[in-house]
Amino acid sequence: MRPPFSPKSLLSLAGATALPLLSASPAAAHVKWFAPYIVGAPPQPIAATLGNIWFWTGIVLVLVFFLATRFVERSPAGEAILQGLDRATDPLWLRLDDFVRVVIGAFFVAIFAIGGVYLTPDLKTPAEWVSWMQLLIAALIFSRRTQPLAAAGIIGLWLLALRDYDIFHLLDYLALGVGVAGYLVLEAMPNPDWRARRFEVLRWGVAIALMWSSLEKFAYPDWFYPLVEEKPFLTFGMPRDVFIPMAGVAEFTMGFGLIWTPLVRRLSAIALFVIFNAAVYPFGRVDLIGHALIMAIIVAIAADRTREVHFLPAVKRALAGVPAGLAAALVVFVTGYWGLHVAIYGAGGNVGAAPAEHLTHTPNAENPHGVTGTSDGVSDAVNAAAAYQAAMDRMHGPMMNGIADPDPDAAFVRGMIPHHQGAIDMAETVLKFGKDPENQHFAREIIDTQTREISEMRQWLRQRGIAEP
């Protein structure tokens, strides 16, 4: 049975409320996860992801995990595992509503203490009264009579953020905010049937938020390049262009797992908690605050011992439902992401003007990114010149070696691979030090196109058993 107060209805309500405030104005440039970016810039074509072998490798690995989990879940061992999880999480399950309410309240107290933000440290505001509104929301959470007012306050903060941030940027935060608001409303309801859906709404909110935000890794992989370069240990030794698409697949599919059957969703929640928890120490306390709410909800999902399966239960219980459901989710979210971008900014995007940047973290001084690593244009120019020269130095030897191949066809491909990589390195340099929005758009197009062409040329070499330069 469809939840009477589903995330979809909540999203529709918030969207209808927000419509008068929305317009397709030029996208603002902000900094997200260490990288300056322009939301209105055209995303990488989805064909680039569909042609990426590492994307499909990730999909296959996750499907094997999900299918194996469902196979076990359908056997007597599945119920034994679920009962073991029940015993481990019983103390939390018995006080799960108290846990969730305390965490939500503590989160809003924490961002009140930080000051100058909306719903997360990534969304900054100069309005001091917004922080006091967050403290009021925290106070309203501890009485069932006032929880709906707290829920309205959360949605109100999201709508207020539209004054300062682009609508497409804020969609990353809508589903989680709506899920939390929906939980607060349903938890306060006297109707037991409606109240029984409160954790499901929370789960859907987190799942949608994760699946939506994961698409950035496919649409704008260059946003993540500075982060990977600054903290290379995050890639577990994998090359950047292998790690980013597979990380996107992991985030999307684990989010998808949260809305599937009990064992799949609980194991997905545990996996996500481990992933999020691993990032706490490297990024510090502010990042912990930014992710605390979603981490706590993931813990609540892992502790949720309910066995009911709502929304297409027959599909979810069938083994074939796993690949079918994942394929359907990908189609819906990819169509929504790329389609909304075109609807808001047009097919060519809309980069607008580049205002001052905001940072959510302190960058590493040895690996500066954006325009924050220096305080004057002269230093930027010197660093950019050095980066361009380094790119050319890296390119020259392999390219000359490649074009020396006696086979003209092989010489062309072996020479063009380092040539393209040099162009990518130069494009990344202008993204790091440049300020012109149109130039940055060109740079992203170069990165997208030439990364795809390098992959195709490497495939050509592999098919013929020819070594790269």
TrEMBL record:
InterPro entries, sorted: DUF305_CopM-like, Ferritin-like
Keywords: Membrane, Signal, Transmembrane, Transmembrane helix
Domain annotation DUF305: ranges: 385-461
Signal peptide range in chain numbering: 1-29
Coiled-coil spans in chain: none
Residue segments, region Disordered: 357-376
Residue ranges crossing the lipid bilayer per the database entry: 53-72, 99-120, 149-165, 171-189, 242-260, 289-306, 318-340
Name of the protein in question: DUF305 domain-containing protein
